[in-house]
Predict the structure.
Amino acid sequence: MTMPAHVRAPAFDDRPVLATAPLKAGHAREELSRVGDPSWDLGAAVFRENARRCHVTVHFDVLEHADVQAAMRAYLYARLNVDLPGYRQKLPPASIRQAFNRARRFFAFVRLTLGRLDLARIDQALVDAYARHLRDDPARRPIIVGQLLEVITDLYHLREHLPDCGIAFEPWAGRTPARVAGYRHVRENRTPRFPEDVIAALLAWSLRYVTVFAHDILAARRELDRLEARRDRLVVADSSFSEADRQQRRRTRLTAFFDRRRREGRGLPIWGTAHNGKVRVDPNTGTVTPPINAHLLHLHAGIDVRAEPRAHLMLTGGEPRLIEAAAAELGVEVGGMDTPISIDPESGRPWRARFDAKTLAHEERMLQAAAYILCAYLTGMRDCEVQAMRRGCLSIVRTEDGLIERHRIRSTIYKRRSALGEAASWVTIEPVADAIAVLERLSARPARASGSDTLWPVLRPSAVTKTHLSSEVVRQLNVFRDHLNAAFGSPDAPVVPPGPDGKPWRITTRQFRRTIAWHIANRPFGTIAGMIQYKHASVAAFEGYAGTSASGFRAEVEAQRRLGQLDDLLGYFDRRQGGASLGGPAGPRIARTLDDAADRLAPLPAMIADRSRLRVMLASVARTFHVGPLADCFFDPATALCLKRVTTPDPGQPLTALCEPTRCPNACITARHRPAWERGAGEARTLLREKRLSGLQRIAVEQDLRRIEAVLAQIAPDGALPPQSAAEEEGARIT
């Protein structure tokens, strides 16, 4: 007997949620969530290491009504599996929770309005009412409103792939949800840049963690591993003895530990912090301290309190009297582990107290955060690209004589790629290589425990369910900021300064890429944490991944250059309005341009000139602006002296190394350049004190000094004394 076709066809709810999406190795499509399951877990199809688990799962039981659950399943299944050329590609599995939340909001509104969820009854008036409802919230930005309205157009375009045929009419006559929401696309990257003093402090301390503190942290972890392994061996050896004999053996080992401390002149270990609110009062001084570090005593005595809680040394059946007597005699020591603490070269003192198990775990997370800051900032990599780094990702290219020529990182690009991503290489600089070397050692134990080769594991896998750092890095970075201020600063003088609003600067992962792109574009001669020139980081980044059009970093730098050029010129305008002088051959020309703009704007006293109009008026001049160490260049290839000294000039930009700031008609010198010119004047005066100078050399140096003094006179601040002339200096030298 032949069964009817509708009986033979598999039930819709039995289909795998993902019909064609690629899966990670080790996962079969038959094992995926089914459409009818109460929860969908799409982690098997998400390749980005920084994806949060909650973002790749949805739970339908949070929806109270069966009609909403059915509509949600149908909508999400269609979004995940239907590609609509010219409208939308399939929904990436990593975005399933986002799509769920947006659709849930619209379905709830429809059900509240109609009494039940019936897509066929939705009309233009209802979707208009929903748009007004979203716009009525003043805290909801137009871009968010547009994203929420996309669900409505989805239901129209997917109507042939939905059981209830979706929405039959074209919402808003084809206008995009963004236009309906009133959103205007702004090309400028709105991600805030780090204030310079904030990123400088974060980088300086991150470098110190990686180059100085990491040695102690990794050594302390090795010590703790050895103690735990020894404890486990002692537990096995004691297992064949009676309870009384085991207790005596432990007491003997504990007494031996106290004797060693007595010989070394060290006290009993106490915890670094009073966790769980427990404290101890010193019987000799009355000082309140954290409690005795019983964990370390258990390790030395050979006790596993997780397997044998009654053996805890601080319980009545343990050795509390012996321990308190030893503490009264020997005193106490914070932490108590044996790993010595290195001297901080900046302070000349140990950088912290000795470790205990808790402070060690905390410092490991701080070291991981420091390594992330160096990797993210000094490479220009996105967060997903940084977190895709795996063990062995660093390679070193050497010259024939063995010198390091370049450091290269292998990772994966995901933006504008398929779900699998695309392998890529980044050329980087030595501090990043040092950070990766530290991460290799720091991540080895937790990554091995989870069977992963990532450089970014969760360092406490037993405390959480996830094994990869993912979005937890944001919280960890902000904890690192607070830790630096608490450990190395004070409330009145934090080592990481607050933001412009006086509050601690909130760190996000996107800020690193945007900030270094801006600095490379607009401050190439500045330094990173006082030691690495941005020009060096730029060359390394552009040679590798950033030099390819696929990466987008060069485009990011160029975008930041355009914005920075205009911002710098607006700074010129503000300083000129405040009476600042502009020196150099181009100074009078630029001053006239700025003064003309001010006259056309004619801002009233105590009013700020219209910045939007000012940007338009100065845009053409800003496009020629390039920052330099001795002078800024308002570049005109026809008159640039630097291009006349080379045979293959690049008319697109000036050759800063060949700049002649006192002769080139494009050079403009401001007060910002004054320190460099003052250093030059100081060096010239030092040379003039040298008795071995020949007559011609002395004349040349004096001419150079007069040229520098003329520049300094042009940009001297109001009320400043004129620089000492070469003749006066020479007279002082003879006298």
Observations:
- Residues 641 and 660 are 7 Å apart (CA to CA).
- The two ends are 124 Å apart (CA to CA).
- The longest strand covers residues 404-413.
- The first helix runs from residue 5 to 8.
